[in-house]
Amino acid sequence: xxPPDPVPFDDPAGTWNRRFSQDGYLFGVEPNAWxxxxxxxxxxxxxxxxVADGEGRNSVWLARxxxxxxxxxxxxxxxxxxxxxxxxxxxxxxxxxxxCDGFAWPQAHYDGVAAIFVxxxxxxxxTRLFAHIVDCLKPGGVLVLQGYTPKQLDYxxxxxxxxxxxxxxxxxxxxxxxxxVTVLREYEAEVSEGSGHHGxxxxxxxxxxxx
Length: 211
What we know:
Layout: H1 12-20, H2 33-38, E1 47-50, H3 57-64, E2 68-73, H4 76-89, E3 94-97, E4 110-116, H5 123-136, E5 137-148, H6 152-155, H7 169-175, E6 179-193, E7 197-210
Parallel strand pairs: 1-2, 1-4, 2-3, 4-5
Antiparallel strand pairs: 5-7, 6-7
C-alpha cells in the first residue's frame, strides 16, 4: 500500500520534483486505464491538452495515437522525464513547465483535454482549473477526467488524504453544468500505476463535451 499523495503542501513544485527524482517512473509509463478506454472520443490529428501531466505517461501515449499533444506540469524534473519518455517512444509532445494558474490556457483552442488524477487542487484552485478547462475547449471539444471519490480515504492506495480534494457525482455535474456530460461513472477497480497508485481504488470517471 503506497502512502497518499502529500497535499496540500507549501512547496508543490519542490514536493513533486522530489517525488519524481526517484529512479523509474512514479506512476509507471503506461497510460491511465480510463483515458485509454475513453480516448476514442478523439480522432488522430486533433489537438489535445494533458493537464498536470507529470512524467508523461498519458501525453506520450496520446501522441502515439496520432494526436497533437500539449502537456504541462509544475515539476521540471517530471517534465524532463516526460521529454525523455517521448523521445524513447519516437513521438513529439509540446511540453511546458507551469502550474495551473500560470499555464497560458488559450481560449477555445483544444479538441480535447485529459485531466487524470489532478486532485492536488484544493477547492478554490479546482474551481479555477475546471473553469480554465472548459474555456480552453473548442465547441464540441471533449474532456476526459478521472479522479478518486471520498471512499478512497478507506483504501489509501493513492490520491490526497483530504475529502475536500476528492470528487463526487454531484460535484462534477455542478462543476461541468455548462457541458454535455456523456459519461459519469463511479466504480471500484484494482489500479496498478507504478508505486504511486496501486491497489483497490474508489474511482470516478467523466466524459463531457463543450456545447
